[in-house]
Every structure is written in structure tokens, then in C-alpha cells.
Amino acid sequence: MKMPELLVFAKMFVVGLVAAEVCRTTYYLGTAFAPAIADFSLWARGIPVLIGLAVCVVYAVNRGAHVSAVQMGRSLRFDLLIAMCLGVWSNQLAMPWLSKFHSALRASDPCWAPVAFLLFCTVLLSPIVQQHWPRRRQTTSQLHFLADEEIRRQNDDLLSNETQAKSFAEIVLASGAHSGLVFGVDGPWGVGKTSFINLAERYWERAADKVIVCRFEPLRYASEPDLADRLIRDLSAAIQNRVFAPEFRPAASRYSRLIKGKADVSFLGFKLSLEPSQETVDELLDDIDEVLRRIGRRVIVVIDDLDRLDAKTVNNVLFATRRTFKLSQATYVLCYDTEVLAGSKEEGSRAREFLEKFVTVKLSLFVDSSSIRNFLQRDWEKSESQLESVPSDTMVKLGAVLNELAEILAGESAAKYLPLIGDLRKVKRFINAILLMQIEKTDLGRTDFNKRDLIHLMLLHLNYPGLFRRIYAEETEGRSGTFSVRRKYDESEFKNADGFEQVKEEHPGSAKFLLEQLFDVGVLKLGDGRNIEESVLRSRACFNKGDTRNLESFLKLIVRFATPEPQETFVLYQAAVDRVRKGRKIASVFAEAEFALEKQETTHDQFWRVLVNHAHDFTSQTAEDAIETLVAYLPCYSSFDNDDRGLRPRSIYSLLRLLDRAGWGRTAGLRRVNSPENVIEIAWRIFGEEKFVGKGLLERLATPERGILGWNDLMLFRLQCSADRGGQLYNLHTALIVHQDMSAPSSGLVSQLALMGMRTLSQQVFAHFKRTYIEPGRNFIAEARGVPVDAFLGQAFAHLREEASLDPGSDQGDTTIARRVAAARSFAASFVIYHLSNALPPNGSGVGCGYYDESGAEDGGSISRLMNDYVFGHCFSPIVDGDNVQLFLDHCLAHLSSPFHTGRDEEGYVATKSGLPGGLDPKAMGRYWLTHRNHILGLGLQGSGRCVFLPSYTAFYRDDLEGVFAVLDELAEEAVSATPVPDA
Description:
The protein is mainly alpha-helical. It has 44 helices and 11 strands. Helix 29 (620-633) runs antiparallel to helix 30.
């Protein structure tokens, strides 16, 4: 039989003694104050009393006094009640000793009573008011992240651990009281050990009349020297919170002092050593165990986060736990990750040995990839999934990335991703990283980012920051380093950089796996680099060179939160083309804000490029809409050099490719074979025959409304149709040939194919020009001078109208745009005249229109002769108009030759006999000069400040005319020797 805890009984005795004295003191003060309020009404005297009682009750309830009272009642400790009553009786017996104090109270000022009362109420009201005083509502944060908090409710169980937790809790409850019974919950970080214990604790709470749960978190006390003492303190607090056992604290305190050993106390400079009692540890533990048996409770001691401590501290915790195994009423649950504890060679091995000795029953927790996948695919949408702090619009945009991650975990390589994303903690960290990129401001579905590559780079960023920083340093700011793939011009396959294999060897495990998934050409299987799909080239992170700096864009998104403008992405145009293929009108696509020509014409350029690449499977309606829309939009595009040739001339080749791929043979079903009978439809479209009467492209490209630039479009269209230019327009070339002769061969010597295919086209183009300009006597070259700047600027550059209208030869202001427009004007006139007059046969640069006759197949060059007569006899003739002399001289200055081609050791462009005619007949030019030489020289234009602007150079009258005149004299001499000039 154990000796009773005298200290407990003494404490209850003193409580009764002091409580009686407090009541007596209150009575004396109240009695002294009563005469002062004798004249007050009953309600005036009763209200303060009721207020005081209310304050006492509210304070007691807030402090949990009612719970403690119930616990004391259930304990049936009548012995302690008797000790307290004896204390009250002792107060009565001690009255003679306190008579002077009582007399002073009775004789004191009556006002002491209200002072004491008000002080008492103030002291009790202060914490009540502070607790219930309305606080300012916190402003909801605009940036939401997921906290790594353990779950406490069944509704929060995203990994379906509820059933397993219930089973574990029941096993612990059914195990009974056994000395040294230890359950181990083993699992990697983030698997949810704490959440698992929280779910089990919910079932233990239902058996609160049988067990008490003590949660000991050694991580909070890792710096304390004696963890065993802290364990006993937490155990004591947990027990006393649930039951009334006043003798437990003294027993626990004695145990704590015993395990601490000798204590040193300093008093007045003297150092005293206090030895603990002669009790043994076992005896004290028996006392504590006896208390637990008496109150009829078992204690479940949960020790969590062992794997977050260093190995030495873990051993200390286990040793402290081992010293309490004498408690038969205690069951221990340890939560840890064995692999983390055994990470150190020395201390880790000792920790593993301790675990093997201590843990009686071990439970291992696992997270299936299917559970993570289910969460990513559907559970994140539920309000109870702990994602209610994230706005719904943000979560909708997260869906694309989360679904892609779920697809990864459903693949054959899922096991390799589990170390990176295999638990809910890692998933939350991944989601927070995505949210940090401000994904709510980004629609990844409208960018070129490959979602799987983005996920891989995010995992590198989160798990291997050093490696990610190296990638960032080598692959940004225009650099291409070790990681991006490359392909030489003369090679077909993509290759990794020389140092990539070494980098993989330096980063084994998951880091190597991620590098392979991102950059290894053997894993990516990119195939032939010359035929790679543009969607792949524009979206994969392995490309980072030239126009496809995808990797840098990925890195900027992750690090700088920088997303490309929609107009800079390939997916914008791919999606637009998909809508067109499904029946959407192109005009309605162009009406969307992203395709507004007023902002830029790059969007239209990219759209037509992507559309033409996908035109092979267009229906007849889609093909018709594409051709008609492109022809209609040509005048809306720029025709001057704006870092390129301008979209209008570039679009002509897109029109030809559309005709070649989609302008023939399409039925409601599959496309017919490209036989002559089918592809001839292309020629009908061009010449306006059969079902295309009135809609021929030749007439539509050069309508009167389109003026000079329309003729520039038409001549460029005609030039690109020449088979010898190698334009890969087989169907179009075949159509032009069989349009003249269905039995003519469509393969063979390219020069012969070009001659035949271009005959009818050239004849009809010239016939149209003759009807429009030659027969009415209109000066084509003079009209080219008057083309308004708006026609060259197009809609995208219309805001530059004022700059483009400046005098290009002026030194005032910025005339860059004006010079470019002037050069485009000169080039357009020269280009049309050159190709109409050129009589050269096919030589790889196209067949000259002047090579052919107006009709027939003799090819005697009559078109060239007619053009020379028109140009020299009308356009340049000073007899027709005196200003035509300047047109002639402008034409000459527009055809100067580069020294690179002439072989002369001169600077700048110079006049040559081969270049000066510009497609015209040199003899006709010589005869023109013979006729008008004196008149032109007499004008003295050599001193004029006039200049001619071309894309590659600027010619000045004062600097270059002397050279032009010299060459003209040579041409005149040759013309005289070839054709004698008759006497006047």
C-alpha cells in the first residue's frame, strides 16, 4: 500500500481555510457598507449584486470552471472534500488568532467594500472584454496559396485514409493495457502521418471515458536538455485536462526531479546541493501508474515528427520514452520515417536499432499514384478539398496543368515521378508554385507552352534549384547552352550538346530523369528535323535557337512570371485555322481583337502561313473562302520595306500555295487525285473560265481600284507561276500546261515546261495591260508617281501617314519612312515594266512576258517590242509630255549596278550597259537617246538636287547622271552600228 499524497490533502485543507477567510472578509466589509445604502430601494441594491454574480459566472464559464466542477464531481473524491471542509472549520477555530484583523475590517471605512467590489469586477471583466470585443475584419488577401496543414475532419481526407485510420484506432483501443506496448506509424515525409493520427484521434475521442490522448511534439522542445522531463509535463497536463487527479502532478514532479538528479541552489553566496529522495524510478512510475488505474483511464502517448529531428535528438527522445515503459496504463504511438532516421551512418544506425527494439507493432503508410491522380482530376474541385481559399477562376485555369500532371501519373513512368510529386504535400507545393506564376492572369491554353515540359521544369525548379539556376544562366538572354538541342544545316537529325551527357551523369536519380524528359533527343524522338511539325517546334522546351527560343520563354515564365503576348504564340493561329476548317468564316476570325490590323499585320502574316500549311484537306467552301478573303485583303497590307518586303507582296506566294493545295478537286468527301482533269480547275480560277467566269484572278488582282500596286501584285503572281523558279507548285504548273493542251506532258525539262505553262498567262496579262494603259494612252510610269502613301502603308501602318508624306530628300525631320515608301514606289513601277518588257527565256529567274507574242505559239517576242514602243514612244517621250524626261532619267538611275556584279573597283552603284535598260531593249534605248540626247542635256538636270530612292541605294542626279549619260552614249553608238540612222 502506498503512502497517501500529503501535499494534496494539505492543498485542499488550505483551499478550504482561505476560502472561508475570504467569505468572512467579504461579510465584514459588506456589513460595514450596508448602513450606507440602507435608504436605497431593493432593486438599486440588488442590481449590483446580480451584476457581480453575472460577471463571476461568465468568467467561470469562459475559464472552463464548469468542466472542472463536473470532473471533480465524477471523481467521487470525498476524502478531498472532507479535507477542504476541515479547512473551513479550522478557519472558525483560528478566529481568536485573527481577531485584530477582523476588528480592523469591521471598523474600516465603508467605502472599502465598493472599492474591493469594483476592483474585483474590473479584474474579471478585463479578459472577458478583450476576448469578445469586436475586431476589425481582416481584408481578404488577393494572393491565395495552399497551407501545408494536417487534416482534422473526415471531409478533408483526400487520400482515402479514413478506413485505415479507423481500423488502426480500433486496434489500439482493443490492445488493452500492456507495459511497453509501442505502435509505429512509418511513412515518408508528406505521406500524411500527422493527418492519419488526427483521423484516428477522432475515434479515440469517442472513447473518452476510457482513454486520454497525449500529443508530444519533441520538435518544439528539441533545444531543451531533458526531453523526458518535458514528456512527463505534457503527459501530466493532458491527464489533468481530462480528469480530476490532483495527486498526479506531485507524482509526476517527483519523477521529473528524480530523472534530473542532484540540483544545485545558490543562497547568499553559498552553493547548496539538493539530493533527490531515496525513491527509485520504478517506485515513482508505480505511483503514477496507480493514479492512472485509479481514475480508470489509459493514456495513448503520440510522439510525432521524430524524423524531423537530428539523429542524436531522436535517440534522446527514444531513450526518454523508454524510461516511461513501466507505465502499464500507457500505449505509445511513434510517427517517423525510417529511411530519414537511418540517413546518418552512425547515429542513424543507432536510431534504427532503437526503433527495432521499441516498436512492437508497425504500420506503414503509402500513397498510391491513383489517389494523387484522382485528386488532380476531380477532388480539387470540391469545396472540402482545402482549396476553397483559391478563387474559382484561378482553379479553372489550373485545371489544364493538373490534368496533364494526372496523365503523367497514369503513365508507365509514374513510379519515377513519385519521389517528386508522390504525396499531397508535394502536390500543394507544386500548386503554390503555379499560383505564384500568377496563372490567373495567364491562359496557358492560348500559349505555345507544352504543359508536360512546363511541369518537368517546375519540378526541377522546386527540387533541384542549383541545376535549374544553371539552365537559366546558360539558356537565357539569347544564349543556347548545354541543354537545348541543335541541328546543323546539312544534317537531318537533332543532337544534344557535347556536355549534356556529362551533366546527366553529375545529376543521377530523379534529376537525370527530368533532364532526359526535357532535353534528351533519344527520349524525345523528334525525328527528321527538316520535316518536324511546326506545333512541336514552337512548343517543346528543348528548342532554344533563332526564332524558336522556347526554353527561354519557359524559364522567363517560371522565374519572371513573363508570358508572351497571344500574337507571339503559334497556338493562336493554330486554333484560328482549326475554327476555319470547321466552317468559320475567315472574315469573322479577322474581326477578333487579336487580329486587328490597326495594331499590327504580323498576326495576318502568321495566320496565312499556318492556314496554307494546313490547306491540303480543306473543303471546297473553306478553300473558296480562303482564296477570296486573301485576294480581298491584299490592299489592306503594307507594300514597303518594314524590316521585310511588306505583307502584300509576301501574300502573293501564299495565294499561289493556296491554289496549288486547295484550289482544285475538292468534293464533299475526300480530295480527288491530282490528275490533269482535276487540277485544270486552278487555271479556270486564274483565267476566269467555266464556273469562275467573272471571278478570274488576273482581272481581280489588277482592277482599276487597285491601280499600280494591283499590277505589281499581278506581275509578282505571274512571275511566281514560272516552273523554272522552283516554287514547288506542281499542281499549278500542271494546270497552266494542260489548260493549253490536255495531252501535253507535265514533266520533263523544266525550261520547256516553264515556256509552255507561262505562254497563255503572259499573253492574257499583256492583253489586260494593253487594254488598260497602251490603247487609252495612259502613262503607267507617271501614274506610279501619284500612288498615295496610304496604299503603301496599309492599315497596320496608317498611323505613319504624316511621316510617310514628308519629302524623302529633305534633311528636316525623320524621313526614314518617307524614303522607304519612295523606294517602294520606284520599285513597283520598275518591276512591272521590267517583267512586261523582258524577253529572256527561262533561266531560273522566270520567263519574261516579252518573250511571247500577243497570240499564238511562235514566241517571237512581239510583246517585248510593243512594250518598248509604248515605253519609249509614250512614257518617256518629251514630245508627249516634257516631264517624261525625268521619268526616263529616273528609270536609268533606278537600274544602276552594284560593283560586286560589275567587277569594277568603284564605290557605290554605277551605270552599266547590261543593267541600265532594266528589261527594255538596249537598242531601243540607244535610239531613244540618239533622238532626244541634245534636248535632255540642254535641260541641265545634272545640277539638280533630285534623287531616286531604291530599296538598296539612293541615286542622285548631280552625282550619277554623268555616268548614266556615258553609258547611254555607248548604247547609242551600238544602236547606230546595228541600225543606220537615216538622214533627216
